Each structure stands twice: as structure tokens, then as C-alpha cells.
Amino acid sequence: MQTQIQDVIFQALKNLSDELENEELAHPTIETKIYGSEGNLDSLALVSFITDIEEMIEKQFEINITLADEKAMSSRNSPFKDVKTLTQYIQDLLQENQ
Predict the structure, then answer these.
(1) Any alpha helices (H) in 21-98, and if so which ranges?
(2) Per-residue pLDDT tens digits for 3-22
(3) Terminus-to-terminus CA distance in the chain, angstroms?
(4) I need a labelling partner for 93 at 20 to 30 A (CA). Which of 6, 41, 62, 65 fits?
């Protein structure tokens, strides 16, 4: 499941790379920074990214999840920091919803 989630995140980042003209997003890795002080996305791009991820997860896993809920936004360590933390966060959400 972890690899499938990473593939979804990688694809969503690649989709944004042309729009944002950000070469780092064209070739994401597990360490790619998503949001925050060193992140590649600003708040507007993050909203688009979250929407894309939610749609892709629903298609792939047939489970509807909400990534930008109160838990995620109030978390001390943002799940949107990098690909690794977002992968774990999504995996936890999927396991909770099964």
C-alpha cells in the first residue's frame, strides 16, 4: 500500500511541476519537500495538490478521505512537510477508514 500511495503523490507532484515551472517536482523522491519553510508548494498550490490527491486516492483505493481536516491542520508536525510524512499520514487514514 505504501508504494501505491507514494506513486499517487509522485504523480500529483509531477502534474503540478509544469504549472508551477518547478523542476524538482518533475522528479519527486521520498524526501521531496512539499509545504512549509523549505516546501515547493505555496498555500494555493497546496490546495490544488490536496484536491488532486484526494481524487486519485478515491479512484485507486475506492475510499473517500479528507486530507485537510482539523487534525492535519492543527498537527504540530504537518503531514504535508514532505512525501515521506504525507505517505504515512495517508496510509494511517486509509487504515482508519477500512
Answers:
(1) 23-26, 43-61, 70-74, 83-96
(2) 999 999 999 999 999 899 99
(3) 13
(4) 41
CA distance 22 to 37: 16
Give the separation between CA 67 and CA 70, rounded to whole angstroms. Answer: 9
Q: Is the Cβ–Cβ distance between 83 and 10 less than 8 Å?
A: yes
Distance of alpha carbon 98 from alpha carbon 83, whole angstroms: 22
pLDDT band of 85, cuts 50, 70, 90: very high
- Angle (deg, nearest 10), helices 2-20 and 43-61: 140
- CATH topology for 2-96? 1.10.1200
| Residue bearing cell 518533475 | 26
CA Rg, the chain, in Å? 12
